[in-house]
Amino acid sequence: MIKASGEERDTIMKDMTRRNFVKMAGIAMATAAAGSLWQDKTSLAETADAPAAPKAAEGGDHYVAPSQRQGGEAVVYFTRDLSAAGLLKAYDAIAQNMTGKVGIKLHTGEPHGPNIIPRPWVKTLIAEKLPKANIVETNTYYQGARYTTAEHRKTLAVNGWDFAPVDIMDEEGTAMLPVKGGKWFTEMSVGSHMLNYDSLLVLTHFKGHTMGGFGGSNKNIGIGCADGRIGKKMIHTGDTGTQWGIGKEELMERISESAKATADHFGDHIAYINVLRNMSVSCDCEGTAAQPVVTPNIGILASTDILAADQASVDLVYALPEKYRHDLVERMETRHGLRQLSYMKELGMGCDRYVILDMDHGSKPITLAEAVKNVKPFKA
Question: CA–CA separation, 292 vs 369, rounded Å?
Answer without folding.
Answer: 25
